[in-house]
Every structure is written in C-alpha cells, then in structure tokens.
Amino acid sequence: LLSQYAGWITSSIVTDGAMAALQRWMMLYGLAFVIAVIIMGIKIYKSDRKQLIYSVAMLVVALGPVLMEATNLMWHFGSYNGYTLRNGYLISFTLICVAAGMAEKMFADIPLKGAFYRRQTAVVAVIGAVYVMIYNILPINNEMLAMAFFIMIFAVMFAVYMFMLIRKKEFNCKSVILVIALELFIGAYALIGPPKFYTYEDYQIGDYVQYANDAADSLDIEESATDRIVNPDISLNANYPLILRRGALSSFTAALEDDTQSYAKRWGYSKYFLWLLDSGGTVFSNAVLHVTQAVNINELDSALYTLEKKEGDYSLYNTNYNLPFGFCVDSSFSKLDMTNVDWITYHNRMYKAMTGDKETFVTRIYPQAETAGNIKSMTINVGSRSAIYMNIADVKKPNADANASKLESSIHVYVNGEAVVVPTLGDVNNTAYFTDYNNNLLYLGIFEDEDVQIKIEYDKPKYMNQSKMTIGLLNMEKMDKLCEDFADKQTDVSYTNNTLTVKINSDGTKDYALIPVIKSANWTVTLDGKTVKTKEIAGLFTGVQVHEGENTLVFTFVPKGRNAGLLITLVTLLITVLCLVINYKRTINVPVWAKYCAQYIYIGLFAIVVAAMFVVPVISTIPAAIYHIIRILLK
Prior knowledge:
Blueprint: H1 2-9, H2 18-25, H3 32-44, H4 49-67, H5 69-75, H6 85-102, H7 114-137, H8 143-167, H9 177-190, H10 207-218, E1 228-230, H11 240-244, H12 260-266, E2 269-272, E3 275-280, H13 283-288, E4 291-296, E5 305-311, E6 314-319, E7 327-329, H14 343-355, E8 362-365, E9 369-372, E10 375-382, E11 386-394, E12 411-415, E13 418-419, E14 442-447, E15 450-458, E16 467-475, H15 476-485, E17 492-495, E18 499-506, E19 512-515, E20 523-527, E21 530-531, E22 535-537, E23 541-545, E24 549-557, H16 562-585, H17 592-634
Parallel strand pairs: 1-4
Antiparallel strand pairs: 2-3, 4-6, 5-6, 7-19, 8-16, 9-10, 10-15, 11-14, 11-16, 12-13, 12-15, 17-18, 18-24, 19-23, 20-21, 20-24, 22-23
Helix pairs in contact: 1-5, 2-8, 3-6, 3-8, 4-5, 4-6, 5-17, 7-9, 8-9
C-alpha cells in the first residue's frame, strides 16, 4: 500500500497525452464567468474569514484532482482510463455553488433596456453563425490544436467578464447571459457527434453492436451459455457474446478473476487492458473450452472449420474438432503448478492428463535461423500431419500490453512466401504482428511431410534481439484420435439463470472432473447434492474430485458477500428503528466522554485523509512535475 501511495504522489499531469490533457482541462470550459465571479468575490469577502476559508477549501477539493494527479488517482483508487467525466459535473457544481454564495454581495438587479438585449442577441447570433460555418469546413485537426482553441476562447471570455465586473460598480448578471450562452454553444457544437479534432479509435466505434445484431439475425446464430463461439478476426469487437447471447472467452466487462487474463495468455490467447480476446489459441485450446462455432469475416481453414452459412460480410462455421463441456482427467493433473509455464507445456500436460499418452502432443521447435539484415529465415521439417503455431514476445516486457512494446506492429511473418494475416480490430487484413488485439499465437497452417519455409521480417534489425520466438507443432493425428475417444463421453449439460448442471461419467481411473468454467468465489458447487470443494485448474477450469459412475455437478451462482451484505443491512435497519423508538419514548443521554472520544476520532481520521489526499500531493506536485519533465527531455 505504501509503495502504491508513493507511486501516486510521484505522478504528474505533465505525462498526459494530447487527448488526456484535453479531457482534463475541458472540465473548466464554460466556467469562465463563474471563475471571474469567484476571484472578485474572494476580494470582496477577504474580511469574512469563515466565508473565505470555506470557499477556498471547496475550490481545493474540486480543483485538486485537475492540478494534482496524485489526488486524482486516489479519488479513483489508483487507476482510471481518461480524465473522467464525473469530475466535470463535480467541478461545475462546486464552483457554481461557491460563486452563487458570493453573488449576494456583488450583483444588483438593475433594469436593462430591451435595446441592449436586441443588440447583444444580434452580435451573439452572428458570431455563432460564423463559427458554425468555419467549423464545418475545417479539416480534421488534432487534440492539441483543439485544446489551444478552447483555451483561447476561455481566456477571451474570462477577460471580458473580468473587465465587466471591474468596470461596473453595480452589475446585473443578466447582462452576460447571452455571452455565456455563446461560450457554451461554441464548445457544445464542437462536441455534437464525432468532434472534428478527434479521430475515434477502432474499439470506440458504436457500429459493432449493429454488426453483431445483424450477424446473429442473418446467420441464425443460436443462443447458448455452454456451446461457445469465437470470432478469430476480432471483427465484432470484444463484447459480442453479450449481444449474441452466446458463451465465449472474449470479454470486455472486467468481470474476470484477477489471474484469468494471465492464464488465458499462457493458453495462447491475446489480451489487452481489461480485455480477454478470441485471437490466438489453438484447435486444442478451443476444443477443451467447448468452442463449437466461429463467426468471421476472413475465410477460415477448412481443415479446422466447416462453413455453415454466409450472409453479407460474415460467415458462420462449425468447428471440426470438438470435445465435451467438461471431461475427466487423472487427479495428479490438479497438483501441477501451471503458473510459470508456456502454452506448449499447458497443451502437453492437459493432453497427457486426458489420454494417458506419454508421447509429446505439441513438439517445441528450435529451428536454425539465418539472418540477413532485418530478416530471419528458417526451415521447419514437418513429418506427420501437424498444425504450426508461433508467437513472438518482447523479452523486455513479456507481460505488458502490445502498445507498451517497441515491437508493436513491427514484425511481418511469411510462410512459404505468403504473408500471414494478423487480423486486428478495424483491419481484418492486417499483416503487422503484434497488435493490441492480436498479440499471441499465430496459426501458420497444417502441413504433412513437407519442409516449411518461414521468414520473419522486422522493421528494424535491432528488434531481433528484443524478441523471443516460440514455435510448436501440434500433432493433428493425435488431435483426431482425442476427439474420437471423447465422442462417446459427452456430458449432459443444462442451465438456468443462475445454475449450471453437468452430469459427467468417470471410469474410476480418471477421477477428476474439469469443467470449463472459471473458478470464482461466487460459485457454490454440489456433487450429487452435497457441497464440495473445488480448485482452479490452469486458470480457465474448475476442478472437482468425482467418483466412479455418473456424477451430477450443480454450479450455483451466488454473488460473494450478498448474504453478509443483506444481514448487515437488516441489522443496521433494526438498530436504527430501535434507536428511533427508544428516542421517541425517552431521551438518549450520551456520556460526555463518549462524545469527546467520537469527536477526536473523527477529527483525527479526517485530518489523516486531508493530509494524505491534499497536503502531501500539494508538496509533491511541483517536484514530481520537474522530475517527469527531465525524464521526457532526456528521452
């Protein structure tokens, strides 16, 4: 906690990017008159000590997060994405309230002539119309130019308001209503629809919802919580399963366990920020997670998928390799440490636990590579029919998001002279590896009795030493046999809104059931009606010890803490009602010592919070800013 706090107080707003800076300072836009009133009010109220202290304290609380990144981070419990809009509401509300309180001694209700309003209306209307015409013909600009423009508008308006407040001894605030309206209109018009100064990121485009709805309707995609689906080319964004009402690995709901993303990455899937993505993985990992269909724009390999239906841009495929929703393995698998091994080890251990086969399922390849400039070439000799999978990681930042690495979109992979497509959000035909949305396993194809030529081209030769390549050959003959062996061992699965029932058979030798449901404290599991302990297995499975014969597993979703929360609420309500009844019948006399104790405890806690959230950041803000500026200059 102390280490995290140290990180907060050494952060600075000078590290903001262009958009983050615009978001931060636009929270003050439209408040030029309010701020002018506050500045004049402080001068007027300087003799009223209580009013002055109250006003300054309110300003510090509201504006502190704007100027002090440490305070802003503490308000958001350590992290946030973009300067949050809620701060804008808080700032506006607080400053308007402070200004309104001061206005009592500043404004007079002086009558204004109709001619004044007419002249002002005409001027404001002309300026507004000219602004609209100019804005509509402007080319797309960047965020920094937009921020400079809005700062200029704010500064001009602020100067006008200050001039009016200083010049006139008796001031009617109604005289600036139309000027304030013009100021707000200038900002509001620029923010109607996609602003000219901002280019949307691919993930921010709202059309994906319609894409998913259209695909669901035109392809007749059936709803299911257990028959999972994938979208390998990320053409439906990350939250499409919610729209399709179909189970999937892909998620951007942040409703994941702490280690789900890291385990999914070890299985070969991509991740980004709070996203868990379909891109990556293998035919085996999809099968054990009970993926039964795929929806895609790009054509999928017919060796792995069978086309079911095509309408418009999207096609629906059935998977050729399927495993049941849940299966039994040797219980020794549950004792293996899966935290520090890669996708090849994951596949081999899982396969061995499922089949008892001691032969290698995925063969790790160490090809001899020839380097020429920025190109690395190698030949892989493939014997039995195998699927080739490969990933390249940044050795300096192996667990970071793609955009934190210099290798992002800096690598191109070619197989037998053909460029490998690396579909990413917004570009299903992208060939640059790796990206934010596709940064793990690449499927290079299925080969048999062939020398496969692989060429890896880097944007810069120095990136070769920063990258680590892993190549594996997944034995498709073993994959065929695995699916055949489990074809007659289908589990019986049913579900309701909050329960999942899995009937699974064990032959006695494999006495540990793996259900492809992420283990969570929110699941209560019973075996044949008795509550049993479960265990997280390989990150994406829940493991349960079972007996020989048929086992009925029932997963019931009960939000963790719900019962305790309801009990606390009920007890609190009863105590409150009891105190009200007692107080009504007789006056409650609280001992003086208890009052003093409560006061000192409250004041002490309040002082600690104020010191931690405001005093310390005030002291550290300038040194932190200097430190970060020096770091930026040295880079």
